[in-house]
Fold Molybdenum cofactor biosynthesis protein MoaE.
Amino acid sequence: MKKFWITDGKVSIEEVVALVTRREAGAINTFIGTVREFTKGKKTLYLDYQAYIPMAEKKLMQIGEEIKKKWPDAETAIVHRVGRLDISDIAVVIAVSTPHRADSYEASRYAIERIKEIVPIWKKEHWEDGETWVGNQLETTPYPKGYPEVKNND
Amino acid sequence: MKKFWITDGKVSIEEVVALVTRREAGAINTFIGTVREFTKGKKTLYLDYQAYIPMAEKKLMQIGEEIKKKWPDAETAIVHRVGRLDISDIAVVIAVSTPHRADSYEASRYAIERIKEIVPIWKKEHWEDGETWVGNQLETTPYPKGYPEVKNND
């Protein structure tokens, strides 16, 4: 079963948790990223996420492997949604199961930081008063060259 | 709506998450405690949790208030199950939503540690070869006096 994937539909938390539930686990930490209405006082109406899907899924799998090396007893599943997301919609769910709770928190936190560092998913913010491509999720680089270009005023 | 409660039925993760989902939140951390099959090489068949329910719910609410003081932007919901739980059943779900992700992890971790410190819930382990009352969840005290007594071989 696929444990690292990109979807353009609604995300089910229970589905992601089920993928890591097992007899050896006593702890499951999940991180759920949702669309927030206000960022530094600016109002978001909705978001568009775009991904280069094969590469994004490969990078999510890589994060799972990194976690396995650091926390050999951990099982991880991650789904990230793309397309249009409204306020409070779920953009990402990470679930990590471990025998004991401390590891589940640490590995889950590691996963979300790595997603923002290495997974090629771009976010377009549709503000009340305009639109901006935020670039990568750390917001340190612009929408990259070489990926299909999307105009700011499409 | 009740956000801190004890139940003797199956726990729905989505229900707990829904209680903290809101337009101001960009992050929801959940911690899910499940019944693990092996503890230090000993095989568990199933668990019984018992709680003094009014006090347990009051203590869960207190944890919510403590979180509100430490992380004013956080919203918390917690459910703990009692009765017989089989392997992989969910015993506890904590959900904490915050505007930004770091706080959601910290407040969620705080909640599970406090549950184990102050909430009067006792666990009876039904091992392959016998039964033991584990006492409180930190496993530092025996089944307390003053609560209805349960015999080890009931």
